[in-house]
Every structure is written in C-alpha cells, then in structure tokens.
Amino acid sequence: MRSSRLWRALPWNGLGVLPFLLFALLFLLLPTANIVAGAFVDGTGSFTLKNIFNLFTPEIINAFWLSIRLSFTSALIGCALGFAIALAVVLGGLPAWLRGIVMTFSGVTSNFAGVPLAFAYVATLGRVGFVTLLLRDWFGVNIYALGFNMISFWGLVAAYVFFQIPLMVLIITPAIDGLKREWREAAEVLGATGGQYWRMVALPVLGPSLLGTLALLFANAFGAVATAIALTGSLLSIAPILLFNQIRGDVLQDPHLGYALAFAMIVITGISNAVYVVMRTRAERWIK
Q1: pTM for the whole thing?
Q2: Per-residue pLDDT tens for 167-207?
Q3: Which of 8, 158, 243, 275 has the fewest CB atoms within 10 Å distance of its CB?
Q4: How many whole angstroms separate alpha carbon 238 and alpha carbon 215?
Q5: Which ranges in 92-152 belong to alpha helices (H)?
C-alpha cells in the first residue's frame, strides 16, 4: 500500500520534459561551457587571459564592428518591412486563406538561410540573375552599373533581409492581433484621429514588442555564418567568418582564440536575447 502511494507520488508528469532537457544539455549547455572554458586556457590547458586580450586587436575589433553594423542594419530593415507586411495581414482586410498562406510562407522562409539562400540570392540578383536581367532588359536599369555589389556590406544586408522580414512577420503578428478593438473605439469616441490613435495608443503598446523583435533579429543576423561564407568567402571580414577561420582554417588556425571569439559572440547575442525577453515580458502585460 505504502509503495503504491509512493509510486503515485513520483513526478511522472515531468518525464515528458526530459528529452528537451537532455537535448539542451548536450547541444547547448555543454558546448557553451566548453567554449567558455576554452577561451580562458592556452594550448597546454593552463589558465590565461591572453585569448581575451587578443580580441582587442584592430582586425578583430573591426570585424566585430562590421558584424554589429551589418546585423543592426538588416534587423532594422527587416523590422520596418516585416511590420508593414504584418499590418497588411492583420488590419488590411485580407481573406483568412491568404493570411494562412502568408504566415506559412513566412514560417518556411524564416529558416531559409545558409548555402540554399546564397544560391537563391545569386540566381535572383547575381550579374545574370533573374531580377537583374529583368531590370536591365525591361526597364533599362543596370544595378551593377549603379554600384550594387553582392560581395559588399549592402550586398550582404540584402541577403540577410531575405530571412529577417519573414521572422519579423511571424513574431510581430500576434502582438498586432493583441490590439483590442475597444481601444480604437474609445479613442474615436474621444475624438482622436487615426494618426493620433497610432501615435498615442497603438505604437506605445507595440513598442516593447518592436524593440524586443529588433533585438532578436539582431542576434539572428549576428550569428549567421553559412550565408556570408557562401557569398563572400573570406573577402568580407565579419566576426563569424573570422571565428570560422580561426577554428577550421589551415593558415590562421588558433582554436583558443576561436573560443574567445565565440565567447564574445555569446556575450553579445546573450545581451540581445535578454533585451528580447525583457521587452516581451513587458509587451505581454498589455496582451493579457
């Protein structure tokens, strides 16, 4: 009798979360701990701060600054365009079936990155890409004669925007759905115009969601490496490519400096994700 009570008292409902905890331990926590530990040891396994100090060389500082500018620019453009699309989806009077298509498409393309994205980008905006030839032959606009270059800062920004926009649509659409009709009706009863409603009610409510999503998109772009390598190789020195060269390269290989680079990237993306969590918590107060 006593054993059966003890059996029923065991937290069996918690067993369902064990696969997730095991996955997080093996593929997130342990690798992160290994990176942090590797950043503070040398080749002999002795503690050192040399790897951290080496991060402050001009080459690495410039790479991180370029990555920060690239990530912030693509995140800002993705937020602006994604927000406009989400507004059209939620408030534009689209039929329900079309909204379903937009959200499904956004879910697929938000994960469309790496080498497939690089190939699609070249096929679209390369020198003989579909859009490039369309603009040249139909409208007489040669984007390359105007200075466009795929292997450049703005060329990589354009590639990152491919997955930043749909991610923004996915995240901000529920926040827009959370705008209560009563708020707009109350504003109209009090004599507010549409512009005043958005400036004084809707945007302040959506502000935390917008800022949080901007931080999340920044982190999303900051850690992207496969697309950048596939498009530019090592011609554009950004932090993820520099990290890849230090760990996997044949000439510049220095694994422990690579660990330090990865540690710095973890700190930056961790701050971005913390901002997202805080802003999301503030936004959920209005939705509730």
Answers
A1: 0.86
A2: 999 999 988 988 888 888 888 888 888 888 888 888 888 88
A3: 8
A4: 19
A5: 96-109, 115-125, 130-139
